[in-house]
Amino acid sequence: MKLFKLCSTEAYIWSAKVYSGRETTGSKQVSIAENVCIELADTLLNEGRTLFVDNFYTSYQLVVKFLNFRTHVLGTVRHNKEYMSNSVMSCPLKKGEMIAREDKNGIVILKCRDKPLAVTTYNNGKIGIDRSDQIVSYATTIRKSIKWYQKLALHLLVGRTIVNAHTVYQIATNKKILIRQFREILVYEWSNVSSENTVCVFDKIVFDNHRKKTKKVTHHLGIRKNQEGKHIRMCTLCYKKKRQTLTRRSEKKHKKNYSVLFEVPKITPNVFGMF
After folding, report:
1. pLDDT tens string 120-153
2. 266 is in which domain, residue-wise?
3. What is the dihedral of CA 89, 91, 92, 95, to 10 degrees?
4. Is the CA virtual torsion 152, 154, 158, 159 positive or negative?
5. Torsion of Cα atoms, 51 then 54 then 56 then 61, to 10°
6. pLDDT above 80 for 69
7. Is 147 within a domain?
8. Which residues are registered as beta bridge partners of 257?
9. Which whole number is the average pLDDT over 227-242?
10. pTM for the full model?
11. Reduced to 3 states, what is the DSSP secondary structure of residue 16?
12. 140 inside domain
């Protein structure tokens, strides 16, 4: 599963798109990478912005098209791309040397063996997408599943939206908070626990000592059964232990079937109450 994303330098995910093979919409005369860039940045054109892309998207045609929308493009480019200046791409350079050419449209092609200002600016501008993926991976909710749409739904609902909310919160309040702590605050707010039993602080959860009785909230593992009241799966630990002394056939006669389910507290959630 491939996901195209457009992020700001602060790691805010502006727009995203799932790659689903050959497109039926968009211009058929341009590549998939160009159509993706135009579609994701559609609402940001004609504002004098700068788009940072990697060598998968960068092409001469893409830069010309974005210049018509008053949008600058900065990115690395592959050697086999069309309409690239051969005098620049094939020029051998020593350490510390650089060569550049500018065409009539104002497009500059640069090749260097050092780290000029253009490369530093590109690295600083592209850090947003890497930072966004890094924050999402800290507490990922994606688990092994054959159904790809489950992974996508969890990534968009629990990954992308919370990362965006975390980014906006830090910019608006000018406060730094870990993504794990931010998730904990959201969970307590959505489960309607913090308003009654706890006081949310940015670094920890503090129980209200003024109340004599607090509602005990616990998470525990329960044994899951089917409609007939039988256990669903076989316990893997019991199977491994008995296989050391018993044969495969004899072990199946003495097997124990268990399937564990993570049970959450029975609290009526008020997720959409604030909206």
Report:
1. 888 888 788 777 777 777 766 666 666 777 777 8
2. 2-126+259-274
3. -80
4. negative
5. 40
6. yes
7. no
8. 234
9. 66
10. 0.58
11. strand
12. no
